[in-house]
């Protein structure tokens, strides 16, 4: 039985109860009128009253059912539209479709319609991002795989030892890039899978920065320096925070090939602040706004580091947001880029 039919029958049953109560009261009132002994005229009037009450009741109930059917049909029309829209979306995956909602309507069905449209907008955005992500992944994976395939085909031929060594080095470099890309993708896939278990522990952010400095210093040399290091404690995951600092420091070193990179950690009000500043190519407001998008890389970044994946800053933003903080990139005067991470400082 459909909801519309149930509502119509409910209207009819409600009216039948009201009419039955009213008619019963009217009948007893009429029957209680003073009369002497058996009166054929009075009995006939009671019979006529019973007939009239029954006819009126039957007609009233029928009209209530019909009226309830029509009213409920009008009231449930938005729900029917939602059902049809949902079915069409299920068949075509056309999340751009919307249902019509009166602009100034404030009833519950209008609110349901707006909520349904908001849900469709969210699904549409997620679906488009998924399609773009899959396309970007396919493109990024194709490049190193094509390069490795070409190198292997060359190695199958008779090559001089020098050319063979260069081809092997190229294949190894692309294989490492592919492995790094896959590792980054796994991190982002876990991030998209939903809330991950988060067991925060006290972490000294200054110690993490020094640990990263010691790891990168043998390669970076005098280009990497620590300019300011205050004690800063946060609640979080040490491995993830180290990954964050590594990403920012590594990016700065890549895009400042002839300049220095400075690490600093401090406390401002109730926040632990990590800054990574370089003397590199700088950053425009447009690139700074889009730098945390997956696979996005500005023209200068692609020129300086063709082997980059464009996923590091996306992972950095996920780590920061996981710890309840904020991250931003800004231009550093007179030239260079500054990455600023703010995390809630732990008490005590």
Structure, explained:
The protein is of the alpha+beta class. Among the domains are: about 5-75; about 200-345, Histidine kinase-like ATPase, C-terminal domain (Heat Shock Protein 90, 2-Layer Sandwich), CATH 3.30.565. Helix content is about 60%, strand content about 15%. The protein has a 5-stranded mixed beta sheet. A hairpin with a 2-residue loop joins strand 4 and strand 5. The radius of gyration is 37 Å and the shape is elongated. The model has no long low-confidence stretch (mean pLDDT about 80).
Draw up the topology in text.
Blueprint: H1 3-31, H2 40-75, H3 77-92, H4 108-155, H5 161-192, E1 201-204, H6 205-220, E2 224-229, E3 233-236, H7 238-254, E4 261-268, E5 271-278, H8 285-290, H9 299-304, H10 312-322, E6 326-331, E7 337-344
Parallel strand pairs: 2-4
Antiparallel strand pairs: 1-3, 4-5, 5-7, 6-7
Write out the strand line-up for the largest beta sheet, numbering strands in chain order: 2-4-5-7-6
User: What's the mean pLDDT score?
Assistant: 79
Structural class: alpha+beta
Contiguous helical run count: 10
Global shape: elongated
The number of distinct β-strands equals 7
Our estimate of the beta-strand percent is 5-15%
Distance between the termini: 64 Å
CATH level-4 homologous superfamily of the domain at 201-344: Histidine kinase-like ATPase, C-terminal domain
CA-atom Rg in angstroms: 37 Å
- The assigned CATH architecture of the domain at 201-344 is 2-Layer Sandwich
* Helix proportion range: 55-70%
CATH class of the domain at 201-344: Alpha Beta
Which fold name is given in CATH as the topology of the domain at 201-344?
Heat Shock Protein 90
Main beta sheet: 5 strands, mixed
Order of helices and strands: HHHHHEHEEHEEHHHEE
Low-confidence stretches are none
């Amino acid at each position: 039985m459909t909801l519309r039919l149930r509502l119509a029958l409910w209207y009819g049953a409600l009216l039948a109860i009201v009419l039955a109560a009213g008619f019963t009261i009217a009948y007893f009132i009429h029957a209680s009128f003073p009369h002497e002994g058996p009166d054929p005229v009075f009995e006939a009037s009671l019979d006529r009253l019973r007939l009239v009450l029954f006819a009126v009741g039957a007609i009233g109930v029928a009209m209530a059912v019909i009226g309830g059917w029509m009213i409920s049909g009008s009231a449930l029309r938005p729900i029917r539209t939602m059902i049809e829209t949902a079915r069409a979306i299920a068949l075509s995956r056309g999340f751009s479709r919307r249902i019509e909602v009166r602009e100034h309507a404030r009833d519950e069905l209008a609110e349901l319609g707006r909520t349904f449209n908001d849900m469709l907008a969210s699904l549409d955005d997620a679906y488009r991002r998924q399609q773009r992500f899959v396309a970007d992944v396919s493109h990024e994976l194709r490049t190193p795989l094509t390069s490795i395939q070409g190198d292997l085909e060359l190695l199958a031929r008779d090559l001089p030892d020098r050319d063979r060594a260069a081809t092997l080095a190229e294949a190894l470099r692309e294989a490492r890039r592919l492995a790094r890309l896959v590792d980054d993708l796994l991190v982002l896939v876990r991030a998209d899978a939903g809330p991950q278990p988060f067991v925060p522990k006290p972490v000294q952010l200054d110690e993490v920065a020094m640990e990263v400095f010691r790891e990168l210093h043998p390669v970076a040399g005098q280009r990497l320096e620590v300019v300011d290091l205050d004690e800063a404690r946060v609640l979080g995951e040490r491995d993830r925070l180290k990954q964050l600092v590594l990403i920012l420091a590594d990016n700065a070193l890549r895009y400042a090939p002839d300049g220095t990179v400075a690490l600093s950690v401090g406390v401002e009000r109730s926040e632990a602040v990590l800054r990574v500043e370089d003397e590199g190519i700088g950053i425009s407001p447009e690139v700074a706004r889009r730098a945390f998008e997956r696979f996005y890389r500005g023209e200068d970044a692609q020129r300086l580091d063709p082997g980059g994946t464009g996923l590091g800053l996306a992972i950095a933003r996920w780590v920061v947001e996981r710890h309840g903080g904020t991250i931003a990139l800004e231009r550093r005067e007179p030239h260079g880029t500054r990455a600023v991470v703010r995390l809630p400082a732990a008490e005590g």
